[in-house]
């Protein structure tokens, strides 16, 4: 199942810079592992915002929920999710 996810990161302005740096490093490590596993298919920065548009390819809504909750930055994110399905006019057979 494909999911389009918008993540907007809102770190507290008074967060300890070392704590913020650790959270970002841990987030990057997990994000790159999930990309290597084929679960996090796209990761795009939204220009001008500390936010991203992502596409996840996961087995279920439960797996999406668990994956998002594992993200180190999860407590500091606003997350919007849309489920995706194949468009009847799409010419790309590998769209799922
Ligand atoms: O920077 C972000 O958009 C937040 C988050 C998503 C992946 C990652 O490495 O950090």
From TrEMBL:
Record keywords: Aromatic hydrocarbons catabolism, Isomerase
Quaternary structure and partners: Homodecamer.
Protein name: Muconolactone Delta-isomerase
Start and end residues of each Muconolactone isomerase domain: 1-89
Pathway note: Aromatic compound metabolism; beta-ketoadipate pathway; 5-oxo-4,5-dihydro-2-furylacetate from catechol: step 3/3
E.C. code: 5.3.3.4
Superkingdom of the organism of origin: Bacteria
InterPro entries: Dimeric_a/b-barrel, MLI_dom, Muconolactone_d_Isoase
MF term (GO), any: muconolactone delta-isomerase activity
Gene name of this polypeptide: catC
Family: Belongs to the muconolactone Delta-isomerase family.
Top EC group: isomerase
Reactions catalysed according to its record: (S)-muconolactone = (4,5-dihydro-5-oxofuran-2-yl)-acetate
Organism the protein comes from: Metapseudomonas resinovorans
């Amino acid at each position: 199942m494909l999911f389009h996810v918008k993540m907007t990161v809102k770190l507290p302005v008074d967060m300890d810079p070392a704590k913020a740096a650790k959270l970002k490093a841990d987030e990057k490590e997990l994000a790159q592992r999930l990309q290597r596993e084929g679960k996090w298919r796209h990761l795009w920065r939204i220009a001008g915002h500390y936010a991203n548009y992502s596409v996840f390819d996961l087995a279920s809504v439960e797996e999406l929920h668990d994956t998002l909750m594992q993200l180190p930055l999860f407590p500091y994110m606003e997350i919007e999710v849309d489920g995706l399905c194949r468009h009847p006019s799409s010419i790309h057979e590998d769209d799922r």
